[in-house]
């Protein structure tokens, strides 16, 4: 609401400036016929104040336009459901880190049991499962990285400036907290990770390595589930 008021103020300033310039121009056109000793003072005031207001309005308009563009760009990089980064957003973060030559880890997470939740509890509950997961990932990763949702129930995380012990500890915490959302054997999360630049320097290379490890983890989960079942 506050932003809308600020935006309207910009338009008001611009309109006032243009109006004064218009009045000044109009009076200047007919000044010789009005025979008023104050007319040129009024014209000068209209042009001066109008020009000042118009310039201020243009500056504010430029700032407003820049802010809107930044907000649109931000929205374009966010997932509409979870409000974490989308694939485009995480790719941008990856490119920035890779360009700097940073050491980081790329983690792929795939939820187990989302389809079962959708089929038995409804899609709203499935969306809730995905949103709760994004919140857990964001909280655990914190300022050490970036969380994104790159598919229906698939997440991609970049962890920056951390060793493998932190990554492995984080993965254990993620698995534990996701499992606690639904205390049943068919629900959980499969995770795989790759290190940059050890496992690859290209985004696709790291995705392939992390994906392979994630499916290995998923197969272990299936085996353990069948044994427990």
Molecular structure report:
The chain is an alpha+beta fold. The protein has helices spanning 2-29, 31-34, 39-76, 87-100, 114-121, 123-141, 164-179, 203-228, and strands at residues 104-112, 145-149, 154-160, 188-196. It has a four-stranded antiparallel beta sheet, sandwiched between helices.
| Stretches with pLDDT under 50, minimum 5 residues | none
What's the helix-strand series? HHHHEHHEEHEH
Percent in helix = 55-70%
How many runs of DSSP E, i.e. beta strands?
Answer: 4
Structural class: alpha+beta
What portion of the residues fall into strands of 2 or more residues?
5-15%
Distance between the termini: 54 Å
The number of helical runs is 8
Produce the secondary structure layout.
Layout: H1 2-29, H2 31-34, H3 39-76, H4 87-100, E1 104-112, H5 114-121, H6 123-141, E2 145-149, E3 154-160, H7 164-179, E4 188-196, H8 203-228
Antiparallel strand pairs: 1-3, 1-4, 2-3
Q: How would you describe this structure in keywords?
A:
229 residues; alpha+beta; four-stranded antiparallel β-sheet; 4 strands
Summarize the structure in short.
By secondary structure, this protein is an alpha+beta fold. It contains eight helices and four strands. It is 67% helix and 13% strand.
């Amino acid at each position: 609401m506050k932003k809308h008021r600020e935006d309207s103020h910009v338009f008001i300033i611009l309109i006032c400036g243009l109006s004064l310039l218009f009045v000044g121009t109009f009076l200047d056109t007919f000044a010789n016929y009005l025979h008023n000793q104050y007319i040129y003072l009024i014209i000068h005031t209209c042009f001066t104040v109008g020009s000042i207001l118009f310039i201020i309005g243009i500056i504010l308009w430029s700032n407003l336009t820049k802010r809107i563009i930044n907000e649109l760009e931000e929205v374009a990089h966010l997932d509409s459901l979870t409000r974490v980064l989308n694939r485009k957003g995480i790719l941008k973060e990856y490119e920035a880190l890779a360009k700097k030559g940073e050491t980081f880890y790329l983690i792929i997470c795939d939820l187990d049991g989302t389809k079962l939740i959708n089929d038995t509890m409804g899609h709203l509950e499935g969306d809730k499962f995905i949103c709760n997961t994004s919140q857990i990932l964001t909280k655990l990763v914190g300022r050490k990285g970036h969380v994104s949702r790159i598919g229906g129930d698939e997440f991609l995380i970049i962890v920056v400036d951390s060793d493998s012990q932190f990554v492995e500890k984080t993965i254990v915490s993620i698995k534990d907290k996701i499992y606690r959302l639904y205390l049943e054997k068919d629900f959980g999360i499969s995770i795989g990770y790759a290190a940059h630049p050890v496992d690859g320097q290209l985004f696709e290379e790291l995705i392939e390595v992390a994906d392979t490890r994630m499916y290995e983890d998923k197969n272990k989960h299936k085996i353990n589930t069948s044994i427990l079942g």
